[in-house]
Amino acid sequence: MAQQLRILQSLWAMERRRTDAAEWPLQTQLAMIRDAGFDGAGVRFIDPDFAAEVTSFLRDHGMIWQAQCYPTNVDDLKPVLELVARLGADHVNLQPNVRPQRIEACIPLLEGWRRLGEQAGVAVHVETHRDRMTTDLFFTLQLLDCFPDLRLTADVSHYLVGREFAWPVDEINHAMIHRILDNSWGIHGRIASREQVQISLGFPQHQGWVDLFMSWWEYAIRSWRKRAGSDAVLTFLCELGAPPYAITGPDGAELSDRWQDALRMKDMIRALWQRIAEEDARPR
Questions:
Q1: Which stretches within the chain are classed as H helix?
Q2: How many whole angstroms separate alpha carbon 178 and alpha carbon 173?
Q3: Which candidate among 57, 70, 102, 264 keeps its CA 20 to 30 Å from the CA of 142?
Q4: Does position 284 have pLDDT exceeding 80, yes or no?
Q5: Does the keyword Isomerase apply (predicted)?
Q6: pLDDT tens sequence across 81-102
Q7: Domain spanning 4-281: CATH superfamily
Q8: Alpha-carbon gap, residue 59 to 67, rounded angstroms
Q9: Which whole number is the average pLDDT over 176-184?
Q10: If phi over 0 gives left and psi between -120 and 50 gives alpha, with beta otherwise, what is residue 164?
Q11: What SS3 class is residue 35?
């Protein structure tokens, strides 16, 4: 079996948070994700009842999911892995919900989480995310010095806005992002500018940022295809967050349609994967 791409939609991103309209019921959200052609969803594995309901729907429709968790210590991962043993998951996406100021304090945590994942036979990916252990690009690169084989989920929107890279992005900053992507085994999809963590794909003034992220995601896919097994699956999670991630106007309404942006992102990534796969299949 050839390498595969699976595009997921974040359930968190399905929240509307509007004052003039009700939230979509969970089953409506899941049906929208299925009918739109996503391959699965990102699911919080914190509430067992919620996770069971969501994964039951996804399983019944031949879809997959990543188990998302936010441990504050090593033992916090144990109930998540127990739930994965019961419900399944493509992998665990771990946001390290701690904020050490020194690398030495991170080592026992990462060693513990990696050990538990290996013992459970479950892939655990550590997400790059602000206000977490991985909040800072430089700090995370130092973590990779300690753990060269650390498996990351790359959400590089946090690093662009966190470091506020100058535009155009120079080769030094590209190289640092590429090093993150070379350790990434999953991708979270959000487009940022140097000042805003989430911008719409559809606004013409954002096209330069869209092109930048598409170039990073192309690099990430090509890097992964070289490292991963011949039958491996790469997940790309569309994760366009509700307000205050999404920019709103004076009436509190969002300035763009996140659902339509997610659909557009899905199609763009599928087309990118197809182009890369076709190029790789050509005789050399």
A1: 26-35, 48-60, 77-87, 103-120, 137-146, 157-163, 171-182, 207-227, 258-281
A2: 9
A3: 70
A4: no
A5: yes
A6: 999 999 999 999 999 999 999 9
A7: Divalent-metal-dependent TIM barrel enzymes (3.20.20.150)
A8: 14
A9: 98
A10: left
A11: helix
